[in-house]
Amino acid sequence: MTRTARRNHRTLQVTGAGVAALLALGACSSSDSGSLSTTSGSSGSTSDKLTGTVTVFAAASLQESFTTLGKQFERAHPGTKVTFSFGGSDSLAASITGGAPADVFASASPKTMKIVTDAGDASGTPVTFVRNQLEIATLPGNPDKVASLKDLTNPALKVVLCDKEVPCGAAAQKALDASGLKLTPVSYEQDVKAALTKVELKEADAAVVYKTDVHAAGDKVGGVEFPESADAVNDYPITLLKDAQHTDTAKAFIALVRSAEGQKVLTEAGFLKP
Amino acid sequence: MTRADLSEAATETLRGGPRRRRVRTGAVGRGVPLPLLVPALIGLAFLIVPLVALLVRAPWSSMPEQLTSADVWQALQLSLVCATAATAVSLVIGVPLAWLLARVEFPGRGLVRALVTLPLVLPPVVGGVALLMALGRNGVVGKWLDAWFGITLPFTTAGVVVAEAFVAMPFLVISVEGTLRAADPRYEEAATTLGASRFTAFRRVTLPLIAPGIAAGAVLAWARALGEFGATITFAGNFPGRTQTMPLAVYLALQSDPEAAVALSLVLLAVSVAVLAGLRDRWMTAG
After folding, report:
1. Is B251 within 8 Å of A186 when comparing Cβ atoms?
2. What does the longest C-alpha to C-alpha distance in chain A come to?
3. CA neighbor of A150 nearest in space, from A209, A234, A226
4. Partner B contacted by A119 (CB < 8 A)
5. Which of A37, A170, A265, B167 has minimal Cβ neighbours within 10 Å of its Cβ?
6. Nearest to residue B112, comparing CAs of B177, B55, B68?
7. Taking the mean position of all CA atoms in its chain, how far away is CA B194?
8. CB-based contacts of B269, cutoff 8 Å, min separation 6
9. Which of A187, A199, A205 to mutate to test the interface with B (most CBs of B within 10 A)?
């Protein structure tokens, strides 16, 4: 899945307005506020103190925006490095509870986050940083004239869904249930990117994915919004993990995600504000 | 290791190792140097401990309910059917290919042999992507299959068989080719001088001669097909009852219910061991 981060990187003012936002947001997030203000408290120059590699496990749907944010973070804090593992939230959660060395976990649903908090692997309480809505991805130009969720039940169409175990699949099921529709896909894919890829390769005619994924795929797929998606909006929680190596740097990354600057990147990718 | 060695090794593995019985007496006491024994035992532990761990961590108490679910049987059944079909496909086209490689001189034979073995070393996901590009609805060949015959392979059980055969056939080809090279071609020549056509000679003389090699190759291919994951999920997708084989079921179960994943893994392990052991008795030890 080679999807280059197409978004051009905006000049960042993380040091100025960013730090202020960090402070403001840090103060709201209950457990983190203490040590966050000690790190970035004095002025912009303290950002130099942040070192080390932050390993972020993030839902596949966050790939484009988090890659952008990671680069911003590395530029704002020379000497730091942000590495990502993107995948289905469930398999990421399983890796974390299985002892994978991660500092931050951003999942696509509270349910998958709960796997990590229940196992006692999170530090503090996870906070919702964005929300995501479903959209139908179609072949470019929508040759099958898909206009609604109901159109996908047409047996002539090859539709792929995410597996019910992963958040995008659970959300799709919720939307289908809410509208009383029965849909038999040709495949339940293991994460949202795999579902989208099948449409990009024209192997499937349509997929129910996140709005953000349709957005990220550019003109390789078409997008059809459907009203039932309002019944299945996913909250994305993020948390610091207990075994984090560089706690301060990891906290600063979370703060960036929640800052005005970070939210700008995320909303431009199609995410909704929490 | 030459190919002949490799298939020899494969055959021997299935046969239970080369005849060692004579040296067994007191081997540990006298002959085995420590610098060999210690890494050998580490190697043994490395291969066996993970399997033992599956047994240790298995949710024995909830095992009955884990395994009585219809999904599990569906996936297991599909796995067995598809692996067997993939082996059959490999036999039908793989044995002649092995014969071609072993018996016919043609320019570029070395290159062809290298290409045939490529799926052995290729990451299975890459194999799946390659199959999509070739046989997908929009693929180089698949486009025409769809346009002319209305056949599309992705997301179908046939697609699973194709993915498994792609990954498993090289095992058969290598094994059979090695056996053919070791078999004396003079028997075939004698048959042809007595008036048999080349095909008859192959059918009546060569095939019986290399049957153990074919069996060994088929077992290896079957086992490889049964465990195939990457190419299958990439090319055939995941739909219960149609394309969801056991390895896919294990992978997806691991995401929400690790206990179920362990239980499913044990089933797959048991089936593999049972079949390898069963076939060993029937075909190998006699030889």
Report:
1. no
2. 63
3. A226
4. no
5. A37
6. B177
7. 37
8. B51, B54
9. A187
Whether B256 sits inside 8 A of A165 (CB atoms) is yes
Q: How many CA atoms lie within 13 A of A208 on its CB side?
A: 34
ipTM score of complex: 0.71
> Model confidence over A87-114: pLDDT tens digits?
888 888 988 988 888 999 999 999 999 9
Is the Cβ pair B243, A185 closer than 8 Å? no
Q: Which of residues 172-201 of A touch B (CB under 8 A)?
A: 185-190, 198, 201
* Contact (CB, 8 A) for B226 and B163: no
Contact B256 A90 (CB under 8 A): yes
Among A3-12, A63-72, B190-199, which is the least confidently predicted range?
A3-12
Nearest Cα to Cα of residue A217 among A136, A129, A106, A157 = A136
Strand partners, A223: A137
**CA Rg, chain A, in Å?**
19
Q: What pTM was computed for the model?
A: 0.73
